[in-house]
Specification:
Length: about 210
């Protein structure tokens, strides 16, 4: 559970078990964010969990299906921009595209199989708590692991200009993975004398080692 996609995989892997939706208030913003989560749940239930045995022996097909589902809720270009932080402006268009591609492809290949390995006893989506004044809506989820222990996952959903609800960030047990990723890339830049191409290569190797 060392990065934002792992967190999402944990969330989606819960589909194979009982799902408990707690009552949510009538706030339209919260309902819209919840509906987006429900759609992802149903997509994984139909396209991933139901074909678990087939996908276990076909990594390419698994990666394709996970990508198709996450494409509806994750903007990898925006995510990559946030991870690059202050270095984004210094990067050329080609470097930005490479970083986004490396981040997406590496995470999907590295953690897609986790979806087939995890098993959940139950998941409880909590009622919406107080929300900030920004565009994000926080949806808290309690996940009890089969081996014991509880994970609290906060999904920060943000409505795009096209009025689609997209995942903006994930916080697991109070660890902000979006911020963690940004700090990690900054370290890569420092270690590679601020050479963006070398830092991207190091970033790719770092993600792959976390499998």
């Amino acid at each position: 559970m060392s990065n934002i996609l792992t967190s999402m995989v944990v969330f989606c892997a819960l589909l194979g078990s009982g799902l408990t939706w707690s009552n949510v208030d009538s706030d339209s913003r919260g309902n819209g964010a919840r509906d987006a989560v429900v759609d992802v749940v149903e997509a994984f239930r139909k396209d991933i969990v139901a074909d678990k045995e087939v996908l276990a022996t076909n990594s390419a097909l698994l990666e394709e299906r996970v990508n198709n589902i996450l494409a509806d809720v994750v903007d990898f270009d925006d995510f990559s921009k946030k991870v690059m932080g202050k270095y984004y402006r210094r990067a050329s268009p080609e470097q930005r595209m490479r970083f986004a591609s490396v981040t997406k492809d590496t995470l999907l290949k590295t953690y897609g199989a986790s979806l087939l390995e995890l098993d959940a006893d139950r998941i409880n989506v909590l009622p919406l708590g107080p929300q900030g004044r920004g565009r994000e809506t926080k949806v808290d989820v309690d996940f009890q692991m089969q081996a014991g222990g509880m994970l609290n996952i906060s999904f920060y959903m943000e409505q795009s200009k096209a009025e689609r609800w997209m995942l903006s960030n994930v916080v697991i047990n109070n660890i902000n993975f979006g911020l963690t990723f940004r700090k990690q890339f900054a370290v890569m830049m420092e270690q590679n004398r601020n050479d963006i191409d070398d830092a991207i290569s190091a970033w790719q190797d770092s993600l792959a080692r976390k499998s």
